[in-house]
Amino acid sequence: MMQIAAVLLLSGLIAQASPSGPPTAMFTSFITDVLAGRVPSNISETMRSQSEGLTQVRDAFAKFGTFKRLQYVREDNLQGYHRYHYSAVFTKSTQHVVFVTDSNGTIVGFFEDQPPQQQSQGQPPQQQSQGQPPPPGEPTPPPAQSR
Fold first, then answer.
1. Distances (CA, A) of 10 to 6, 17, 19, 20
2. What number of helices (H) and strands (E) belong to the chain?
3. What's the sign of the alpha-carbon dihedral 30, 83, 129, 49?
4. What is the pTM assigned to this prediction?
5. Which backbone phi and psi does 96 adopt, to 5 degrees?
């Protein structure tokens, strides 16, 4: 029996397990938790301690309508972190976002991303919008003051 399985595997007749895809379900849960006013479970202690930033994200996303889904765009690695780029589809708008995870799969960052057209044209990233936490290891900027 083992010989038959080995022959089938070698001949490509048995499909090998596909590599694990992007953790879209985990990120969808993150977004729905934030929008519902809950602190997501799979986030770093640093993000948990800065949960006021998540409240600001919820308030900023409210103008985009009801959250519908995340659409995977691409993924990459930067300085030991894994970055997953998505389009967050709402009823009134689509926002480009990036989730950053550590080697354990814990969410350590969530940011506005530049649109895919700018990425392919090599344009520099846009300024980080208010209400989103800074990249891992960077201090949280003070809140904007109204005049």
1. 6, 14, 18, 22
2. 5, 4
3. positive
4. 0.66
5. -90, 125
Give the span between the Cα atoms of 73 and 143, in whole angstroms: 31
Give residue 116's pLDDT band: very low, low, confident or very high (50, 70, 90): low
Q: Check: CB of residue 85 under 8 Å from CB of residue 73.
A: yes
Cα distance between the two ends of the chain: 77
Rounded CA separation 32/29 (Å): 5
Contact assessment for residue 106 and residue 30, using Cβ atoms and an 8 Å cutoff: no
Read off the pLDDT band of 117 (50, 70, 90).
low
Q: Which residues pair with 95 in a beta bridge?
A: 88
Strand partners, 109: 100
pLDDT at 115: 73
DSSP lists the bridge partners of residue 94 as 89
Number of CB atoms found within 10 A of residue 99's CB: 24
Residue 100 and residue 89 in contact, taking contact as beta carbons nearer than 8 Å = no
E strands in 26-66: none
